[in-house]
Amino acid sequence: EPRSPCCCLAWTLLIATMNCLVFLLNLLLMFVIFTIVLLPTIVVVYFGFQCHSQVLHSSARYCKSILDDNSSSALIILGFVIMSPLLVVAMAIYCSLARRLQLLVCCQPYSLALYKGGHCCHPRALCSPQLKAWV
């Protein structure tokens, strides 16, 4: 049975809000995982750029005594080389966690706002385990 226009608008706003919250949760989870996994790359590239004389040339003690331009260049290159495998690891961790938490299943289609009796009327509709995003 079709919903009234006012009810349809209310359900559409509810579903849009729910989908936005799921999207923001996915984005936050991805940001946290990528930041933690890529932290070694970030640190190595930061110190490489900080101590190189052509870039920032810091006056810190470790830049004067330990790192010269050649070692700073090596740190920059090392940071960018280890970035590729760490990106793969971060994406694998995110995908396995998103699959385990079933975050992608929580997105509801907007067609549920048009008709009464959809999955949204059930208590477990927000994350229905019967729906599968992947096989």
UniProtKB/TrEMBL annotation:
<comment type="similarity">
    <text>Belongs to the TMEM88 family.</text>
</comment>
<keyword id="KW-0472">Membrane</keyword>
<keyword id="KW-1133">Transmembrane helix</keyword>
<keyword id="KW-0812">Transmembrane</keyword>
<feature type="transmembrane region" description="Helical">
    <location>
        <begin position="21"/>
        <end position="49"/>
    </location>
</feature>
<dbReference type="GO" id="GO:0005886">
    <property type="term" value="C:plasma membrane"/>
</dbReference>
<dbReference type="InterPro" id="IPR033355">
    <property type="entry name" value="TMEM88"/>
</dbReference>
<protein>
    <submittedName>
        <fullName>TMM88 protein</fullName>
    </submittedName>
</protein>
<feature type="transmembrane region" description="Helical">
    <location>
        <begin position="74"/>
        <end position="94"/>
    </location>
</feature>
<dbReference type="GO" id="GO:0030165">
    <property type="term" value="F:PDZ domain binding"/>
</dbReference>
